Amino acid sequence: MPELPEVENTRQYLLRSGLVGCRFGAPDITWAKTVHEPPIGEFIEGVAGRRVTDVRRRGKYLIAPLDDDQFLVLHLGMTGSLRIHDAGREPPPMVRHTFPLEDGREMRFIDPRKFGHLWLLPDPADAMRKMGPEPLEPTFTVDVVAKTLSGRKSPIKALLLEQSVIAGLGNLYADEALFLSGINPERQANDLGGDEIRALHAAIVQALSHSVAAYAAARDAEWPDPPVALSPWSIPRSTHKPCPRCSGAVAMIRVRGRSSWHCPTCQPAK
Ligand SMILES: [Zn+2]
User: Fold this and answer.
1) pTM score above 0.90
2) pLDDT band at 215 (very low <50, low <70, confident <90, very high)
3) Of 16, 219, 258, 264, which one is the catalytic site residue?
4) Bond prior to 124 in cis (omega within 30° of 0)
């Protein structure tokens, strides 16, 4: 599932492809349930003829302000990706929605499992539930993490997945941040000590920054068709590989139903 680094990679891809400044034609929406607001006819009419003025990101959402003060909001869901191609180029499989551009190209929303989402709104915040801080912004401090976790009895892994706690983290990067900070995914959040919270904060930033940089390098190397998914984390998600720190066996447990890979030696349960 696309998490913060994958969505940021998509944003950078759209910027480098020159989407800003382009004018949309009428989009071809082949799976109506993807459009949440407004009704599909109004969505198509509202996008057609509008020029993109920027591409922003909030958590896992992409936000394209248009030149009439509306916002096209996109969420890639479980398996979605975006590509800008010449209209004459053979479309990749599973293109569900096509946004023609006036320069002869088109933005293609590829979405095999059809879990993507689209909105056209006067306020992009209306597409999202309450969102926590952006972990790669300067406002994301150790104090913010400490305050957010204080008094919360849930397992730390479950809290890291809540977008209202920290925006943009998903299952993969939550596991990686817990591995880097040596914290067991089932630890109760309000039991973490000051040193552990500092380590967790640093690990979240490190895991995400490392991945954002890996995507940037891959975009440069493979432009104009950069990868949409890399595996730039260190905790193996398979029992076939040992822990890179202690060479012991890694393990998978379920925390509130989500698979959680960790090293029982390096991340003791306490
Ligand atoms: Zn280990």
Assistant:
1) yes
2) very high
3) 258
4) no
12-71: pLDDT as tens digits = 999 999 999 999 999 999 999 999 999 999 999 999 999 999 999 999 999 999 999 999
The single residue of 2, 5, 27, 226 carrying the catalytic annotation is: 2
Q: How far is the CA of 241 from the centre of ligand 1 (A)?
A: 11
Tokens 């309000």 -> residue: 190
What's the average model confidence in pLDDT over 79-103?
A: 97
Q: Where in the chain is the domain with CATH 1.10.8.50?
A: 142-262
Q: How far is the CA of 188 from the centre of ligand 1 (A)?
A: 20
62 CA distance to ligand 1 middle (Å): 36
Place of tokens 């759209």: 14
For domain 142-262, the question of CATH label 3.10.310.10 is answered with no
Is residue 130 among the annotated active site residues?
Answer: no
Which pair of tokens denotes residue 256? 């509130």
**CA–CA dist 191, 96 (Å, integer):** 46
